Amino acid sequence: MGLNEKPLSTLHEKASYELADFAVPTGREEEWRFTPLSRLKGLHDGTAAASGGVNVTVEAAPEVTVETVGRDDERLGKAYVPADRISAQAYAAFEKATVVTVPREAVASTPTTITLTGAGDGVAYGHTLVKLEAMAEAVVVLDHRGSAVYADNVEFVVGDGATLKVVSLQDWADDAVHVSHHHAQLGKDATFRSFVVTLGGDLVRLSPSVSYTAPGGDADLTGLYFVDAGQHLEHRLLVDHSQPNCRSNVVYKGALQGDGAHAVWIGDVIIQVEAEGTDTYELNRNLLLTDGARADSVPNLEILTGEVAGAGHASASGRLDDEHIFYLQARGIPFDEARRLVIRGFFGQLIEKIEVEELRDRVMSKVEAELAG
Description:
Layout: E1 54-59, E2 65-70, H1 85-93, E3 96-102, E4 112-132, E5 137-158, E6 163-170, E7 177-186, E8 191-198, E9 203-212, E10 218-227, E11 232-241, E12 247-256, E13 262-271, E14 278-288, E15 294-303, E16 308-318, H2 322-329, H3 335-351, H4 357-372
Helix pairs in contact: 2-3
């Protein structure tokens, strides 16, 4: 399938399965201007031939079916069309895909965890499909570990009346490069809850997106990231409201410390002409803990109809509130402990939303370790 004839909007004009439909990025394009192309290890220009591996293991709930399939499986690529060159490269280059299916009306009794572990031996490409049939419910965890240069696409297909909760943890080794697209397609009255945690890796660029196929879809996209010296962590979100009476809410928070720590957050929400009754909001907050750290935050809201229930966005980046620190110090709490408590409070409400208790503890421990470091 070639280039889409009808652009999604002025912000997202291209979508194609064909690699040739995307020019090699130069860094001057709007969608690439924040990304350090020299650190992508050739994922963007075709020089990164598959030479390594990412080991995929699945611990599935008993109600869930898990398959490993070839790239010719007709279920793949139905919900998502690659939207940039690396996504198209990943789609063209993967050999095997993981397919997780939750049958109609099934309620998964335990989370299903997909662990992707980089072997540290080169470039790898992947594809994952999570499909919930009508009225099904499930929690799915994507746990990324190890060292790799990895590009992949993940499709979440949420059927009519179904509920899918996803936790994606990027806990890579310090030298990893990961570029990924996560796309959720929501049916009538479907519910999607996503929680993204990005802590590890040298460069991580994650692009979550949501589309609706019928009225009543409800999406919450939540994210947390902690950027250390020299790290580049980038999140580029897109919510495409093309159906009436759907909802979306986006909340991402990050903390940065160290020279060269760089966070990028792009939040694009599009309300199409036919999407009357849309209710949407997006929020991004960044804490700059030291000099030399940089946060780029760009919310975009494109409204093509005047009949909306609500639409807004907010973004802010700044340092710790001196009044909060002073309040705690005035009560005998040392500065370092006061700083830790304020940052923990900054992330606390988000971390409470993680569905899996062990993951909540793991994420909080990781944040504590970042602060101690």
